[in-house]
Specification:
13 strands; six-stranded mixed β-sheet; elongated; alpha+beta; 419 residues
């Protein structure tokens, strides 16, 4: 019966008898799926935007640095300036098994310090210089142009005078036709061989496109920093609670540097993992809200379809009586009414999905070139859309049973008498 041409001619004829009433009811269901698609897509866009913004930094990561004590402890006065050391890295790794990577870092030119001068031939400029270990790229990805590389372990062991420069540094110190890899630049009073050029991407924190990276050991020799560490980049395992890792890191550092356990100002930190989890939680909450509101609106619209069909059955009482008198079975009558309900529900859902997709496409186009707000590619996964349509079909079928039962409960003789 579903695939018979006459069946669908009757369905189209029935729903088109009162176009205004049908249109209003369709809009009710359409609005529900539209809200679901739009809100879910908006939440996904925020999620995607944040991931893109920090795609080059491990999401389960944090940063820690030393400050000043705020309370006296163990014979030390208040205001003692603390200094992280390389040995702290080994202790933290041994004491906190949730830590996957630690990258101790030093720098010149950031945080208000004097920015080093770099030069080549007659060209020069000021650039931030970082002293790093190769493990840094496992926490904060560095894309290197073809033909180059980042720092390696041999650079660290032999304190090589090699460097990785930024795109802006290349533009300002080299001619456009020159290949910087293998060439030398002068940083301060020392010559460094360029081993790579890193691509700049937003979302890497305070770094920029002119940064120069040199081995940590070389940095120590040039700037006489001994085993001092300016700050640490720390990445926890994916299944670890980065908030608890942050607490443990501070607790261990307080023990190492003889700081009062209640001193909350001695060590500073920035927990990227915590921020990311909050954004993910907000995104999930928005998605759940869209699901609740969407389903509730769809359900209300489907009830409206049921009411329309009940009215339609009342209006078609004589017609149904004639059909029953001519041999139509209760099953055929029921199927006809249920198909009308499913048809209206499905058409409403498809129109709502199309409208929601158009709105999301518009939002995507409007935010495509926006760099100061983490938002990109608002979409809804196909399984979610299919699931919503299945729910609508099920609801349409269930709500159609009510007018269908009403239709078959009318006795043919009574229907024929209906005026």
């Amino acid at each position: 019966m579903i695939f018979r041409k006459d069946t669908w001619i009757e369905i189209l004829g029935s729903v088109s008898k009162n176009k205004a009433r049908t249109t209003i009811t369709v809009i009710g269901v359409l609005w529900g799926i539209f809200i679901y698609i739009t809100l879910s897509g908006a939440a996904k866009g925020l999620d995607n935007g944040f991931e893109k913004q920090f795609e080059r930094v491990a999401m389960n990561s944090m940063f820690a640095w030393a400050q000043q004590t705020s309370v006296p402890y163990d014979g030390f006065k208040t205001g003692r300036k603390l200094q992280l050391k390389l040995r702290d890295v080994v202790i933290l790794k041994n004491k906190i098994p949730e830590i996957q990577f630690i990258a101790p870092r030093n720098a010149r030119g950031v945080f208000g310090g004097e920015t080093p001068m770099a030069s080549r031939n007659q060209k020069s400029g000021t650039y931030n210089v970082y002293g790093d270990f190769p493990v840094l790229v496992k926490i904060a990805t560095k894309d290197i142009y073809d033909g180059g590389r980042f720092l390696n372990e041999e650079d660290i062991q032999h304190a090589r005078k090699v460097c990785v420069i930024g795109e802006r540094t290349q533009r300002e110190l080299f001619n456009s036709e020159e290949k910087p890899v293998g060439e030398f630049i002068k940083i301060g009073n020392s010559f460094f061989q360029v081993v790579g050029v890193h691509k700049y991407a937003q979302g890497g924190g305070f770094e920029d496109d002119g940064d120069i990276f040199i081995p940590f050991t070389t940095f120590k020799q040039i700037y006489n920093t001994s085993d001092n560490v300016s700050w640490m980049a720390i990445a926890a395992y994916d299944d670890a609670d980065v908030i608890q890792v942050e607490k443990k890191v501070k607790e261990v550092l307080k023990i190492i540097h003889r700081v009062a356990p209640e001193d909350n100002q001695a060590f500073g930190s920035f927990n990227l993992g915590e921020i990311f989890n909050k954004v993910k939680g907000f995104s999930k909450g928005l998605t759940f809200l869209s699901l609740v509101v969407g389903v509730a609106t769809i359900f209300a619209g489907v009830i409206g379809i049921g009411n329309i069909l009940l009215i339609s059955v009342k209006e078609r009482t004589r017609e149904l009586g004639v059909r029953r008198a001519l041999g139509a079975t209760p099953y055929e009558i029921k199927t006809q009414i249920i198909l009308e309900s499913v048809f209206l529900t499905l058409v409403s859902g498809i129109l709502g999905i199309i409208l929601g997709a158009l709105v999301l496409a518009g939002i995507n186009a409007a935010t495509k070139d926006v760099d100061d707000f983490p938002y990109t590619n608002p979409t809804v996964p196909i399984p979610y859309i299919i699931g919503a349509l299945v729910i609508m079909v099920v609801l349409g079928t269930l709500i159609g049973l009510i007018p269908a039962q009403r239709a078959v409960s009318i006795k043919p003789i009574d229907a024929l008498r209906e005026e």
